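User: Here's a structure from my thesis project, written as structure tokens. My advisor, Dr. K., wants to see whether a designed sequence matches the one we expressed. Can you design one independently, without my sequence as a hint?
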């Protein structure tokens, strides 16, 4: 390995190690509550239609919420619903998207911030993906891995 390439590799490894030490030294209580629960995700992993933006899960005193952030946008479509699914997002198909899924509600709008309260007592570990699905035509719009 050339000396400059080796130096770059060592520098990158040192930066990764320092970042890990800093994260371990930072007490969780100093992080915002939403960051302690689940960080925002960037983008959607699988899309049949255009979906952009980020989302997060947030626990509040009155329950857990799925938040689509201000940068969220998607193509318009009929009867779009938001689901949590036990399927891996890469395994979801048009006709199987809602199988054993929990409907959180109708997509409130195609852009901007919005939130969906999860049912009380839901076990998030039983779900693998967040989906947007057109119920009327059984068309999988897109989704993200949880």
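Assistant: Designed independently from the structure alone:
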């Amino acid at each position: 390995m050339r000396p400059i390439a080796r130096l770059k590799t060592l520098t990158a490894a040192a930066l990764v190690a320092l970042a890990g030490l800093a994260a371990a030294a930072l007490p969780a209580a100093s992080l915002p509550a939403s960051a302690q629960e689940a960080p925002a995700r960037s983008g959607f992993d699988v899309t049949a239609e255009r979906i952009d933006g980020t989302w997060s899960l947030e626990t509040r005193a009155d329950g857990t919420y799925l938040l689509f952030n201000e940068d969220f946008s998607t193509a318009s479509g009929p009867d779009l619903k938001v689901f949590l699914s036990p399927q891996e997002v890469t395994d979801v198909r048009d006709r199987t998207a809602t199988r054993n899924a929990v409907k959180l509600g109708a997509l409130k709008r195609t852009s901007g911030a919005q939130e969906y309260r999860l049912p009380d007592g839901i076990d998030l570990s039983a779900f693998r993906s967040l989906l947007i699905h057109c119920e009327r035509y059984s068309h999988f719009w897109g989704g993200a891995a949880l």
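When you compare it with your expressed construct, this may help: The chain has two helices and eleven strands.
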